[in-house]
Amino acid sequence: MSSKSAKILLTGLPGCGKTTAILKIITSLKRKKLAGFYTQEIREKNIRKGFRWRRLDDPEGILAHIDIKSPFKVGKYHVDVVGFERSVVSVLDIDKTDADIFIIDEIGKMECLSEKFVAAVRRLFASDKSVFATVAQKGAGLISEIKSYPGTKLFNLTHQNRAKIIAEISQILSLLENRSK
Predict the structure, then answer these.
(1) What mean pLDDT do residues 35-57 have?
(2) Running DSSP on this structure, what letter comes out for residue 178?
(3) Prediction pTM value
(4) Cβ contacts of residue 13 below 8 Å, gap of 6+?
């Protein structure tokens, strides 16, 4: 990591609070220009039916759902790769965004069905831009590759260490904020 950028990955078991952690850390970065997205479960009558994405600049849409039509599938969920590429991948383009920190929630099997997403993430990690992302604990391809990318710091989130990890990542990103002034 250079003194002006960081590559931070957050992993952990499903349900450990990765998205909650990323949202808390985003809130702590008030003066930074952020670009990216996060994902949330879609639940109906307390049953998970799919996942939605929401860009940090507010547009949102469906990433995957049991009831949509798509040739792409992870488990029981059909993934809207075309919609994801059209609406989300563009905010990860370092040539079109003047963000200080790129937020990606998450680098997972569904997102990695998009070759454009995989290319954008690789480009971000090879750049001098700061990236804070969640990543699936298990997976091949980009999921395993990105964890060993030079200069990347990987945090394993649990219910027990959540507050400590959030504070540590917030501090790292805040220090970047102070250095870039």
Answers:
(1) 95
(2) H
(3) 0.92
(4) 137, 158
